[in-house]
Amino acid sequence: MKNRKTFFLILLSLILVLSACTSTQTEENTSENNTEEEAASPAGSIILATTTSTQDTGLLDYLLPLFTEETNIEVKTIAVGSGKAIQMARDGEADVLLVHAKPDELKLVEEGFATERRDVMYNDFILVGPADGKLQKGNDILAALKEINDNKLNFVSRGDDSGTHKKELSLWKLIDVEPTGEWYIETGSGMGDTLKVADEKRAYTIADRGTYLSLKDTLDLDIIVEGDENLFNQYGVLPVNPEKFETINYEGAVKFMEWITREDIQQLIGEYGIEEYGQALFIPNYK
C-alpha cells in the first residue's frame, strides 16, 4: 500500500513538472511570435506629398521600398504639382514634401509650416517639340519662347501650379509675354500627360529631363533647347512642422529627410536611370 502511494505521488509530480514545462514553452513561443509580429508590422506611416516627376520617372518606385524595408515605415505617396503639394503642407495634409519650387519652399519654412529644407537632387528643364524645323535647336530658352510667341506656334502648358508650371511662367515673364490664345494650350495635368498632349498636338512644351527621358520612346518629340542656366531644376525635402498640426508624424518625416540625404542613398539617386537611359535622371546634391 505504501509503495502504491509513493508511486502515485511520483506520477503526480511528473505530471506537474511536464505541465509546467509545457506552459513555459507555450509562453516562450507566444512571446517569440509576438516579437516577430511586432518586427513585421509597420512602425507607422508617413504621407509624402511630391511632384509628379518623381513618380513619372519611377524614382519613387525605386527608392521607397528600400526606405520601408530599412525603417519599417510605410510611405503613402500623393503625387501632384509642387504648388498643390506645398498647399497640402499648409493644410496639414502631408508629413513631408519632396518638391521643386525652391522660392515657395523657403517661404514655407519662413512661415513656420516646415521646420527646415534640404537640397536633395537636381536635373534640368528642357524645351521639347516636333523636329520639323520651325524652331531651331539651341541653348537659349528665352529666344525660343519669343519665337514661339511671335509665330504663334502651338505650346502646351501644364497649367497646374506645379514647379514646372511656375518655371514656365517665370520664363515668359522674363521676355514680358503673357501667353494667351488658341496656340497656348493648358492641360491642368501632370508632366507625363502634358507631354502626351504636346505629342498629339505637334506642339512645344517645357518638361523636366527625367520625365521626358522616361517617356521618350513613346513620344515623337525632340529636345529643342537645353543647357540654359535658366532651366536649372532643384528638388528639396521638407518635414512639416508638428507645432502647426498635431496629426503630423514628424519623427517619420525627419527619418525620411535624413534617409534621402544620406550618402549611400544619394549615390543610389545618382545611379538611377543610367542603365536604362544612358544617363542619370537626377543628380544628387545634398551637402
UniProtKB/TrEMBL annotation:
Keyword Transmembrane: no
Record's keyword terms, sorted: Signal
Residues annotated as domain PBP: 39-263
InterPro entries for this protein: ABC-Tungstate_binding, PBP_domain
This protein's record includes keyword Signal: yes
Signal peptide: 1-26
Protein name: Tungsten ABC transporter substrate-binding protein
Organism placement in taxonomy: Bacteria, Bacillati, Bacillota, Tissierellia, Tissierellales
